[in-house]
Amino acid sequence: MIRAAIVGAGAIAAHSHVPAVRAHRDRVELVAVADVDEARATSFAAEHGVRSAYPDLGDLLAAERPDLVMVCTPPHLHVEQVIAALGAGAWVWCEKPATLSLAEYDRIEAAEGRGGPYMTVVYQQRFGSGAEHLRELGGALGRPLVALCQTTWHRGDDYYAVPYRGKWATEGGGTTVLHGVHQMDLMLSVFGDWAEIRAMAGTLERPIETEDVSMAMVRFANGAMASVVTSVLSPRQESYLRFDFAEATVELRHLYGYRNADWSSTSPLWNPPRDVPSSHDTQLGLLLDAYERGARPPASGADGRRAMEFVTGLYASAFTGRPVRREEITPDSPFYHRLDGGIETFFGGTATS
């Protein structure tokens, strides 16, 4: 049995990570939980049948020596917690955004060992059978040409009443990196590396520092183009992806997770051989497979970095008001170190750092 632990006894741990562990109970056991609120950790452990609760991750790592740590804390805590877990020999499954910047992400990569332990990011949307089938079809649908990537969700003022939300220092960015990144990661897994981004972002309605809307035009390395929209101001919520290839269109409409019925295509080749939902359960299974093989899991290393690099380019364009090319996102760029680049307002105004 793989021995797993959770750090951060909040809603995402209870509603997504605990059920994922239970779905794989023949392979993994949840042995401990840590939370700075010791009473919450103890209550979580009692409710979910976890043997041990700790107020500190360091104490948990020393006492339990888990094989896998699931990081479910606010984003600004991730980098140090992930590095501590890796240093204790544990693999890590970290909620997005895994880091506040590419600089932090690269610190984590440097802390990984050759052959593990590894950190992988929760990007569950790319792992359903529909997305898997689309990638497997590859060139059978013709050249990739056009994509639409829309994350039009709704989050009210009550959502942002949580102290760490809506702030550059604690979340790194706004809806782009927190919500839209799921669809962006799926898009990138299909169309490949991006080459250039032209973006705008703004804080139109919510009382927050970070953006509540962003929009981008994207050119990929293969020449394909995309339109990307992310919002938390949309009363009718939807996650929508459209991929136009030379020979077919493939579309996905859902909200927070999909099955095969949520996909459609003009191609007679579209026929996923199995129906696996996009979920924490599905991604955890692939992570456990990789752990048992001693192989790097998907959504880790360069594969997990790609979406963070993409949103970094998007923010850089939105803050500077100019096109940003992928090769510009280097350690010499201020946006490599902070998604807001240390700039006080988006190009054209509205958001402050």
UniProtKB/TrEMBL annotation:
Gene3D superfamilies the record matches: Dihydrodipicolinate Reductase, domain 2, NAD(P)-binding Rossmann-like Domain
GO molecular function: nucleotide binding
Protein name: Gfo/Idh/MocA family oxidoreductase
Highest rank taxon of the organism: Bacteria
Pfam families found in the cross-reference section: GFO_IDH_MocA, GFO_IDH_MocA_C3
Organism classification: Bacteria, Bacillati, Actinomycetota, Actinomycetes, Streptosporangiales
GFO/IDH/MocA-like oxidoreductase domain ranges (all copies): 139-239
PANTHER family: D-GLUCOSIDE 3-DEHYDROGENASE, UDP-N-ACETYL-2-AMINO-2-DEOXY-D-GLUCURONATE OXIDASE
InterPro entries reported in the protein's UniProt record: Gfo/Idh/MocA-like_OxRdtase_N, Gfo/Idh/MocA_Oxidoreductase, GFO_IDH_MocA-like_dom, NAD(P)-bd_dom_sf
Coiled coil (residue ranges): none
SUPFAM superfamilies linked to this entry: Glyceraldehyde-3-phosphate dehydrogenase-like, C-terminal domain, NAD(P)-binding Rossmann-fold domains
Domain Gfo/Idh/MocA-like oxidoreductase N-terminal: 2-112
